[in-house]
Batch of 4 targets.
Target 1
Amino acid sequence: MEKIRCGWCGKDELYMDYHDNEWGKPVYDDEILFEFLVLESFQAGLSWITILRKRENFRKAFDNFNYKIIAEYNDAKVEELMADTGIVRNRLKVLATINNAKRFMEVQKEFGSFSKYIWGFVDNQPIINQPSTLKDVPATTDISDALAKDLKKRGFKFLGSTVVYAHMQATGMVNDHILDCHAR
């Protein structure tokens, strides 16, 4: 018998693997949280499968998502990234990633970890929603609005409420698996 999954992942093997093994599982590791910030910010305006298919290219291009290295990127590295056909070549998003790496470390310094900061928005507990269908899953919530507003105040870029909510879903801060999904 075939597993029941959330409809958004379709029959694509990469998508199904991501859905089954990553999406909605709580993440507390700062390195992984940063990786998803980068990937979600690049996803804005594109499909998630596009980003997933380029994930390994992003990993190579962005020094394994090492925010300490990314924060030090210079103009030459920006031009190298802009020439990399394996990633989404959007200068504003590349520059935002460098900026966000710096802001990420500021948050770590203030809160001890980015994880402590971001999980504080959900009282350190995943929000377990009860969607029957994909139509029941919101694009934003009051919490993603508040988090996006706070990130913006701290100088983060390309992390509006919709991107932040997608990040919350991806990192398990919110569980939006539909009720009959096997991964719920």
Target 2
Amino acid sequence: MKAVVFDMDGVIFDSETLVFRMWKVVAEKYGVADIEETCRACLGINATVTREIFFERYGQDFPYDKYKKEMSDLFHANAAGGKLPKKPGIRELLEYLRRENIKTAVASSTRRDLVTRELEEGGLLSYFDEIVCGDMVSRSKPEPDIYLEACRRLQERPEDCYAIEDSYNGIRSAKRAGMHPIMVPDQAAPTEEMEELADSILPSLHEVQQYIDKNCKKI
């Protein structure tokens, strides 16, 4: 084992809960139906594909940009300045990986400026050797591009790297890249497909640390 690559939203930060909550506020204001189901369909994908999913579900005349801006403004009002909650065990896991000299990276579908800002405000930016974001690759998860790029930047083979993910598309992406996916569920419950694709499904990042310590030989 040479490296661990983390998704960000729902893995490092408890941000997806806040996104769902803010979309519900906007949906109730404008009478948008089934917003939670739509948000769940968008887990793990980039902004371009998310936009397409909203248009597919609500029609091409859906004022997505207006509603998305309102949601984003609400989100940042509640998350800026380090207020975004971290997932339990993330700092301990990062400290452990540092002590073990295991490389780390972020592979997030979110755009780079926001990823960097949230990690910095959360006091976690210095833990990561590389950051790869949705606006840095041509294809979104579930395609393998973002994880392949992370491994390339880390200068490690995908088969020597683990990926920590919470979404179906993230697990699919890491598996297609040839990595070892570990699912830590957040908004999406594990399915039979996820059980087949993931090396392990664990309830929290605390168990991820225990799993790595017990099962992964440090090369």
Target 3
Amino acid sequence: MGAHAAQIFADEGAVVVAVSDQYGGVTNPAGLDVAELLEHVAATGTVVGFEESDEISNTKLLGLEVDVLVPAAVEGVLDEITAQQVRARFVVEGANGPTTGEGDRILAKNGVVVVPDVLANAGGVIVSYFEWVQANQAYWWTEGEIAERLEHRMHSAYADVSALARKEDVSLRDSALAIGVQRVAEAHEIRGLYP
């Protein structure tokens, strides 16, 4: 997930200043060449040792002054200790459960907007649903059609979640969970137990 996120950010014109994996991290305040970095990872199996970058520990990376931080691999990485070090304006949870409850409270207190995992990394689940629909209909969509449908679903979900968060003055996480519970309850009322 992290490699894809870095590539998307770079493709959209963002400056990717640091990345890490299980072996360590690399940083370059002027920006990393993500395409070359991905080639390096394919050749070596790690981001460590990438040219035109300095080494950085995974913990120090979490405290860099950046706009967006994407924890994309490890559960519970933003806890009561590491969350205090976060200086990003946004945390986009690419991993499942990268922020603990206490970490979430600290980030909220510090004004960091957290895009929760249930929203930020839902793409795989959505595409799995598309596969299920296609299999049931014996009809196949092109890769472009799937990408278009996925983009629409992700944008729509974020719009719904952010609108409720603003309206109710709650976090994006609380908003996403409230919408999820509401939709399951509505489906249960309409359909009964499934199947």
Target 4
Amino acid sequence: MKPITLFPLEGIPLVRPGDDLVALLAEALARRGGPRTGDVLVVAQKIVSKAEGRFVRLSEVTPSPRALELAQITGKDPRLIEVILWDTAEVLRVRPGLIIVEHRLGFVCANAGVDRSNVAPEGEEIVLRLPEDPDRSARQIREGLARRFGVEVGVVIADSHGRAHRKGVIGVAIGVSGLPALEDWRGRRDLFGYVLQHTEVALGDLVASAATLLLGQAAEGIPAVLIRGLSFLPRESTARELVRARAYDLFR
């Protein structure tokens, strides 16, 4: 088994709405010697959202009656709750300080991914929504890099999520292009010849979580990571492959 190497892409400036994200990533990759076919680029969700202008100024938000109701329970700003509801398919759990929802993209997370950290200077009431279509964003980055460098790389857009029954956040894939989000290992044999019956590997999440060790959660300033040496069969995929269908979700 060959080693897997992670390269932090440094020197990417603060991203603003309308910035050419592919160009910024390409410049950072060029400083690292450029990508190779089979590499995977993991990009932090925040810089994708920022480039796509997914900012919301809370002073411009009018809370709905539902937002006011949930704000009473959670103790959160009703304007923030309203923004969360914009991206919510269903509110699943509510208690003081917490709102868990099914995002309109299918996955379950806190606050519909709406975030304040690393978004704006302290005191400015601005929040950031997830990209409108992270799979599309990943595909556009992959296609843009292929045009610039002439090589095929996989792209994962990573966000930090909590998990049921476990403490702490980890990196998960919310957008995938050019590699399998989910690998089906059923039919493979283990060391003793046993044929695997149920094993599926969340490759997109594994890649996102590994890269998050370098992306960090606070002031690291590393918004993208290049991964080299990963073995996979390239194919077009989406992060929706990782979402468990409601019929098989035993925890709702």
